[in-house]
Design a protein that fits this description.
Shape: flat
Largest sheet: none
Radius of gyration: 24 Å
Strand content: under 5%
Length: about 290
């Protein structure tokens, strides 16, 4: 009995030692790569991030396999990849419904409306004192409470999900855009006035370019909020498509592999969305100190 217990403890120690050894080796490689001159380039930064992600996946796979973790608790990455490959058509339809129709449309509408409203707020002291406090109040409303209401108003299609996304991204984007429009200092504004520039000329040639770092900051924050809002809204009513619908129904059926597949699709879509906005920021605000290597 004692020999069996000792053998089991030794086996656990060996498995734990294997996991820790892989972690330590990968950690050393990550540190060396991140401190090298290669990491200062765009490709090197992506390589560091990719290596870190691969390390997590390897440790995940190794831990689940060695410790015999039940698939209903945590499936290994290879199992999730197999489910993704086997249900590609189904998950592609969910992606289009949630990301393209719900999240992307709401993101574009909400951010465009927020920038337009920021210009109006910038011109109106009344709106600065009246709208922004109301905006802070609206931004604090829990999505778990507003999503069912918007689903009842706009129906169970993608339109209600887009409405939830608009509500989620509008006020964070508005606050960043208003702060960005005030980024140009007083001396620069006075110089534009000495050139007899109108408000709109000053806005286009000075204030909007100066506001771009903060506007893109709002766009990046909103890119993650948009996907979260669309997925959560689908929990409260959706047609038979959508990542939120797929996750909620799969949880009820204890199909944890499909749940993780849906989460993976959402994570990949959100990362790609954020990366696209970050790349656009780098091209537009190349002059800003934050973009210097």
């Amino acid at each position: 009995m004692q020999v069996a217990a000792l053998g089991a403890a030794l086996l656990v120690d060996l498995r734990l030692a294997a996991v820790l050894a892989v972690w330590f080796a990968a950690w050393q490689v990550n540190i060396r790569l991140s401190e090298s001159t290669l990491a200062r380039r765009d490709g090197g930064r992506l390589a560091v991030a990719a290596l870190f992600g691969v390390t997590i996946l390897i440790l995940w796979e190794l831990t689940v396999r060695l410790f015999d973790v039940p698939g209903v608790i945590l499936p290994p990455p290879t199992r999730i990849a197999a489910i993704l490959a086997g249900n590609f058509g189904l998950l592609w339809g969910d992606f289009v419904q949630t990301v393209v129709k719900g999240a992307l449309s709401g993101y574009v509408i909400g951010c465009a409306a927020a920038v337009a409203m920021a210009v109006a707020v910038d011109r109106s002291p009344f709106l600065q004192r009246g709208l922004l406090p109301v905006g802070n109040f609206m931004a604090a409303l829990p999505i778990i409470g507003t999503a069912p209401i918007l689903v009842m108003w706009f129906g169970f299609g993608w339109q209600s999900k887009a409405a939830v996304v608009v509500l989620m991204v509008f006020f964070p984007m508005l606050v960043n855009a208003v702060a960005g429009l005030q980024a140009a200092d007083r001396m620069q504004r006075d110089l534009m006035e000495t050139y007899a520039a109108s408000y709109w000329q000053s806005l286009v040639k000075l204030r909007l370019p100066a506001a771009m770092p903060l506007i893109f900051n709002g766009l990046k924050i909103s890119s993650t909020l948009a996907l979260i809002g669309a997925i959560v809204a689908e929990f409260f009513g959706s047609p038979t498509l959508g990542l939120g619908f797929r996750i909620s129904t799969s949880v009820g059926q204890l199909q944890l592999g499909m749940v993780w597949a849906g989460i993976t699709v959402a994570a990949l879509a959100g990362s790609a969305f954020y990366f696209a906005v970050a790349r656009a920021e780098k091209r537009v605000t190349f002059w800003h100190p934050s973009q210097r290597p």
